[in-house]
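Lab notebook, bench 4. The sequencing result for the construct came back, and we need a structural model before the next group meeting so we can plan mutations. Quick request posted to the team channel:

Model the 3D structure of this chain.
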Amino acid sequence: MPTPEPTLPEIQEAITDLLRTEQLATLATLDAEGHPSASAMHITADGLITYMHTFHNNRKHAQMQHNPNVSYVTSYFPPDGYTGRADIRSLQIQGRATLVTDPAEIQHAVQLSFEQFPWLADTSLYNNIKPPDQGQQVFYRIDPTRGLWSDHRIRQLWRIHLDFSLDGRTITATHPYNTPHRRP
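Done. Here's the predicted structure in token form:
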């Protein structure tokens, strides 16, 4: 018997679970000439909103300041490899990166990071986080605008396009993978 298609709330729950359990994403940014570059980044999530930490003096920061349109992908690959392929899940997001300047939101991102990454307790990485104009470390909030969700637990190669609310906090619509997806 085929697995039924998941509901929109079930898809959103599965995605938020993935974002809270996976530690790494590959972030794609664009330089001033429109050339892409990608970086492996630690991510933390508040629902569908993600936060990424970086430093003032690197390429990613400069590129997101120039063009806030970004993309990232994060995935779960079972430790048993090919034999566990029925558990593969992957999320591709197109979104908007915003430099976090509010001290309360910065502390929120730090707290989420400590909850998600137990290894942070053994480091001093976030001991002296300040607003961007006062320190070298910065957080970016990524608000999703559209995405692609792949969940092999539904069936092998099952994928669906996603639209998000303006604030990025909810999925507003899904579209079949095998049809062209256009912005509403």
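Residues 164 and 171 are 4 Å apart (CA to CA).
Will bring this to the meeting.
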